Amino acid sequence: MRLILALALTHIRGRGRQTLVAVIGVALGVGFSIAMAALMQGGEDDFVARLVDTMPHVDITDEYRNARRQPAQDAFAVVHIAGLRPKDYRRGILTPTEAVAMLRAWVPGRLALSLKTQGVVRYSGRDVGIAIIGIEPQGEMKVSSLAKDFRQGSFTSLIAGGNNIVVGDRLAQRLGAALGTTVTVVSSTGQSRAFKIVGLFHTGTTARDEGEGYVLLKNAQILSERPNAINEIRLKLDDPNAAPQVARRAESQIGYKAMAWQEANESLLQALVIRNVIMYTVVGAILLVAGFGIFNIISTITHEKARDIAILKSLGFTQTDMRRLFLLEGVALGAGGSLVGWVVGFALCFALSLVRFELSGASVAQEITRLPLAWSIWHYLIAASFALVSAGVAGYLPARQAARLNPVDIIRGAT
Amino acid sequence: MSALIETRGLTRVLPAAVPVTLVEGITLAIEAGEFVAITGPSGSGKSSLLYLLGLLDNPSGGALAIEGRDTAGLSERERAGIRLATLGFVFQFHFLLPEFTVRENVEIPMRRLGKLGAAAMRNRSTELLGALGLADHLDKRPDQLSGGQRQRVAVARALANDPPLILADEPTGSLDTKNSGQVFAILDALVRERGKTVIAVTHDTEIAARASRRINLVDGRLAEN
């Protein structure tokens, strides 16, 4: 076997330029697919990270997944109800203290309570409808990504108490208000209170920057005339991937609808799957082309080496030896190409990681972003093994042909 | 003891629309220690017979036994094994592997056989090539040698595994008179001094005349001399 390897390596070395072309072909295939995979995976990770970061991992709201069953439906086997006018249930999560205590007992992560209600902010004759969210600042800071997005002030400014509000910078802009301005907030129940702006945030999402205002939970309860009520519990888990299980358990425990981030973004995650399929197709195509390169060079070597095959066979080499010889040459080219390809892939990834973008939209500020890249040993291993397999296949077909050559035909042709 | 090579009605027909008969009904026995010259006009099937005897080609009919062993029904691997250990080939063109040195070319059959260690193979290749006057060219490539030198390397390679039988196909066909004489002398010495058996296809009447036995072929059949 070592002899066959020595023969294979000598053949490859003897064809310097062709070998170089084949190795470069494979290397580029492997390198580009690594870079491509790193970019796609990085983009996906980055996207999911942003998604997961900005959203609560599990969102429990004061809704039920199914309409409430009528007592008659429980009492009788067959019921037909027509013209039903459902009873007005009290909104909000009932017995919030109890629910929160139950969740705190087992949920692996942090949780925050809030009361979300609709209202209008009024200042200098301008009215803007917003969602008024009552929060507990300490809890909120641990759960919400908003804490990082403050331009001025912070959630802590709310802690001091009093009628303070934190709004998005775009909202302030629309109102013509600034930090320290006192605005009037009118709730849907008609309550009206003056609030001082003590913080401005900028998330980059217009809907939030223009349509959210954060006040103390107590103030929100007063505005909506619902003392002690909350209507949302948001969980931030230590492991975002555990969200579906946690959501299921929470829902069965307290009865309210608990939605994991995966469920809330199902269509987006499906789109990612499609993206992955496209990525692997493209990467596979690149490697396939590289495989044809190997096929080409092994075929050429086989033809050029027909005489050597005849000689070796006359010396007592078997068909199996010949098949191994050329198969080995293909695999050796694939392996060499893979190694160079790893370097190319690494270099490409490194170069891409240096690229900086300035994203300037209509927003106030410019954001500087780097390309998201995922480093994974798997990208390298998968690309290399694909290259090796295609090199093996590309080498096998000419190898089989080489093994079948009848030495007599060649010896006769030469003499 | 049976003959080294024995054939009975050996026939080779190339299948085609009009089948071409290369050799037909060859029955002969060659004993160990003979120097056999196969002669005949070109196209008479000399080389075809040699390829059949050397297991490079498969007969269409008849029987062939080497060292008393019937070769019909042997697998490709077994035939390769016989070529490796029992037969040594010398062709009209040297047929050395161009990328390997003279010494490596001689050692390739030894390495394939795998009986000797690295040091023993080195000794043997040095000895073989030295005996053929190539001691100064061990590490040269074939293309750095003259035609006669290359043919001597080919002889050394044929002897690498110390086979009892050497098959030569026009071994001096592409050499000048001086080199021809040298190569012939080497083959002759193999028979006389080392007890080898040589079967050489040749149209060189001088060589044929000096062989211990001549087999004349005409139109693929044995002709009575």
Describe the protein:
The complex is a heterodimer of chains A (415) and B (225). Chain A has 415 residues and is an alpha+beta fold. Chain A folds into two domains: 2-52 and 268-414, no CATH class; 95-234, no CATH class. In chain A, 57% of the residues lie in helices and 18% in strands. Chain A has 16 helices and twelve strands. Chain A has helices at 2-14, 16-54, 71-75, 96-106, 137-143, 156-159, 169-175, 206-211, 217-223, 243-254, 261-264, 266-304, 306-315, 319-354, 377-404, 407-414; strands spanning 58-61, 109-123, 126-135, 150-152, 164-168, 182-187, 192-201, 212-216, 232-237, 258-260, 356-359, 367-370. In chain A, the strands form two sheets. A six-stranded mixed barrel of chain A has the order 2-3-8-5-7-6. By secondary structure, chain B is of the alpha/beta class. Chain B has seven helices and ten strands. In chain B, the strands form two sheets. Chain B has a six-stranded mixed β-sheet, sandwiched between helices. A four-stranded antiparallel β-sheet of chain B has the order 2-1-4-5, with helices on one face. In chain B, helix 3 packs parallel to helix 5 (147-158). The two termini of chain B are 27 Å apart. The mean pLDDT of chain B is 86. The chains are: A alpha+beta (415), B alpha/beta (225). The A-B interface holds A 2-3, 7, 10-11, 13-14, 307-308, 310-321, 406-408, 411-412, 414-415 and B 47, 51, 54, 56-57, 76-77, 80-85, 87, 89, 91-93, 95-100, 108-109, 111-113, 157, 161, 169-170, 173.
Specify the structural class of chain B: alpha/beta
Q: What is the succession of H and E elements of chain A?
A: HHEHHEEHEHEHEEHEHEHEHHHHEEHH
- What portion of residues of chain B is helical? 25-40%
Largest sheet of chain A: 6 strands, mixed, barrel
Biggest interface: chains and residue counts? A-B, 28 and 34 residues
- Could you say which structural class the secondary elements and strand pairing of chain A correspond to? alpha+beta
Strand content of chain A: 15-25%
Number of strands of chain A: 12
Gyration radius over CA of chain B: 17 Å
Query: How many β-strand runs of chain B?
Result: 10
State the oligomer: heterodimer
